[in-house]
Amino acid sequence: MLLYILVFLLLFWVVSILQSASQVSLLDGESSLRFQQSPIVNQSTDILQQKYHSYQPLLKNQTMTSNQAEDQASPSQTAITGTKKDGVREFIITAYPNKVQIDQNLTIEGWTFNGTIPGPVLRVKEGEKVRIILRNRVPNLKTTIHLHGIPKRNAADGVPLLTQPYVNYGEEYVYEFTAEPAGTYSYHSHGDVQQLDKGLFGPFIIEPTKPTELPDATTEWVVSLDEMDIQGEGNAPPATDGNRMDQSMMQRMMPNAILGSADVYNVFTINGQRSPSEPFKAPANKWVRIRFLNFGFQTHRIAVEGMKLYVTHTDGYKLPAAQQVNQVVISPYERVDVYAIGEEAGQFRLYDTDRGHSEFGMEAKIQLTPNDNITQETIPIQKTNDNKPFYQGLQVGIPGSDSTQYDRVYNMLLGMTMGSNGMSWAINRIPFSSYEEINPYVVQKGDIVKINLFNMSPESHPMHLHGHHFSIVSINGTTISESWLPKDTVNVMPMQRISIAFKADNPGQWIFHCHQSHHADSGLVTYFTYESKDSNEEEGS
Question: Cα-Cα-Cα-Cα dihedral of 366, 368, 369, 374, to 10°?
Fold first, then answer.
């Protein structure tokens, strides 16, 4: 162990030297660029005008209002469609503590949305006006709801102390936005890591209103992945995302570092169940749409026996053409949509291929029923090349010169730094403390913005940008002339360089943070702010 500590301290010393080197270039061909820090911007601490009410008497164990319809989306996971009022689709989402049964032998005390983990699937149509009423019934908790991946108006983004105040125990808060574009998204609390660990998350699905070129899949599976740390359920299997060594002693010495935090999880679930007993069902020879969502803090590699898999969407957005894969690789808070088809009836498995994960619960049964009526519908399939750059099993696009003229280029080094409270996670060696104490990255509406990410740490960092979607335009120095992967969350592995680009088309203040929330809580957070070209331009409209 002493040798390990010495090696780690040596690694940290080397990283510190590299971080401070003034000539560091993140990407090949960009030697003239340096770590750009945004100039100081005067930020108002005034909260945008909000609908904010005090809620007095608590309704015990309210899972749904009587006028909300319930539907079975997938095994052990329910869906609600809300109610239509004055042209607005309204949902009442209540956060409260509840006992949740993970399997026949395990019941936990969780924090739930409407009584379940995950919270119910919220389904709306593209273009609908949506109202979500959050009621906080968790004692001593202050929280919010963030609609993850939807480029909504800034006032509905749900980031406490940036776009709204906290919602305290006994209060309620109203979010209103337009549901677009169609795709697979999620909703979750935006507080500390404990809130996500205890279950405050759920899927949000926007269904298209117009026909698409994809087959009309009559069967849909919603597959929510998560892992938990439950005392008495055995030792955790090794995480496969970062440093797999035992870091318990190092963690006690430097708790702010949050090293190896993903290795503590010993219960793995699908739709809130450890090895769910109820199977996913579908007819053979028919297309099945599978919506994968990762609500945990580890990357999962999911295989589906007996079926061919074609990825059609990443983070809610459609690929130019489907890509065939052997397994679905999905990092924290990413979403991957798959069209799957099985040619033979039988009993199969959906499971995590990482060592120990399926044994600890991340596996489910599949039942394909006999069907002689073979579908004639096909999907456009992308021809891929093994020599092209890949991101988690998917070809990023066509390599070549990136001819885009970027209005702003920001370099962000992801790593650790030593501060007044010990070692913390940081971006460009600056750990997040508060929105008033860090300088935001500045953009103007219409800018084409490029972010060069370089992970110089032993942990993976799934970086999530609020309010926008982006494209991967470079991996480890290989530039992409035509990008195929639309994203809002990108997993940057240890010592990996990834560049992303987005159009600044949604004015407001938007955070950019690691969605391995242990890392975010320890400082891996920054944010973007729009500098108005016209003083009369209304921010967040």
Answer: 160
Q: Which of 337, 284, 330 is nearest to 309 (CA)?
A: 337
- pLDDT beyond 90 at 49: no
* Whether the predicted pLDDT of 155 surpasses 80: yes
Beta-strand (E) ranges in 229-345? 267-270, 280-283, 288-294, 300-304, 308-314, 317-325, 328-330, 335-341
* Residue 29 CB partners (closer than 8 Å, separation 6+): 477, 479
Phi-psi category of 183—alpha, beta or left, where left has phi over 0 and alpha has psi -120 to 50? left
Q: Encode burial over 269-291: b for 16+ CB neighbours within 10 A, e otherwise.
A: bbbbbbbbeebbebbbbbbbbbb
Residue 385's pLDDT is what?
78
Mean pLDDT, the chain, rounded, equals 85
Range in 47-51, 135-139, 484-488 the model is least confident about: 47-51
429: Cβ contacts below 8 Å, ≥ 6 apart: 19, 20, 413, 415, 417
Q: Let me know the angle formed at the C-alpha of 221 by 220 and 226, rounded to the nearest 5 degrees.
A: 155
Burial of 111 (0-12, 13-18, 19+ CB in 10 A): buried
Taking the alpha carbons at both ends of the chain, their separation in whole angstroms is 55
Strands 106-113 and 145-148: unpaired
Q: At 448, list the tokens.
A: 């084409």
Whether the predicted pLDDT of 248 surpasses 80: no
Q: Tokens for 58, please give them.
A: 């608590």
**Tokens linked to 318:** 């459609």
Give CA–CA dist 144/146, Å, rounded.
Answer: 7
Distance CA 497, CA 518 (A): 22
Percent of the chain with pLDDT over 70: 81
Give the span between the Cα atoms of 242 and 493, in whole angstroms: 8
Neighbours of 19 (CB within 10 A): 18
pLDDT one-digit tens code per residue, 431-470: 999 999 999 999 999 999 999 999 999 889 999 999 999 9
Which tokens hold the place of 336? 């991957």
Phi-psi sector, 58: left (phi>0), alpha (psi -120 to 50), beta: beta
153-156 long-range contacts, Cβ below 8 Å, gap at least 24?
Answer: 153/177, 153/506, 153/508, 153/540, 153/541, 154/48, 154/467, 154/506, 154/507, 154/508, 154/509, 154/510, 154/539, 154/540, 155/48, 155/50, 155/508, 155/540
Structure tokens of 86?
Answer: 């004055």
* Residue 147 in this model has a pLDDT that exceeds 70: yes
Residue 262's pLDDT is 62
For residue 377, the model assigns a pLDDT of 87
Burial class (CB in 10 A: 0-12, 13-18, 19+), 450: buried
CA 437 from centroid of its chain's CA atoms: 26
| Count of C-beta atoms within a 10 Å radius of residue 133 | 19
d(CA 164, CA 184): 25
Task: Report yes or no: 402 and 480 within 8 Å, Cβ to Cβ.
Answer: yes
Would you list the DSSP string of 161-193? TTTB--B-TTEEEEEEEE--S-EEEEEEE-S-H
Dist CA 485 CA 382 (whole Å): 12
